[in-house]
Amino acid sequence: MNLPVAPPAFDATTGPGQRRRADRGADIGAGCGLVFLELIALAVIFGLWLLSGFNLDPGKTVRTDSLWNYLAAAGGVGVLAIVAATIAARAGAAVTVVIQAITAALICVIVFGGAAAQSRQDRLCHDIPPAAGCKGSS
Prior knowledge:
It is built from three helices and no strands. It is an all-alpha fold. Helix 2 runs antiparallel to helix 3 (94-127). It is rod-shaped and about 105 Å long.
């Protein structure tokens, strides 16, 4: 006896409309690994900035370098976070996309905050050259 067979229901695993997603564990691991590497890069960048004003000679007055070059390097880390988020979006790694977008936003806040602070310091040194923190002061 031949029973009627219903046509298969919509199958999202085949055809042009299929959505490919990354494995959740690999997605979380990639996101955490990228944040770890970005934090190391930022720590090195701003650590070098702090060390630029460090000297063991007590007779010598040392000022830290201008923050502009270090902010540019931190901005480069932010651009790499945006690129990683774009690549993760194409791979279907939703967790990595969110983590990298948050990281890029925080780096953007750091860069703009640092730019505002350095701009204020540059303006102060331009108006009052012997002010504390300026290269011309003793």
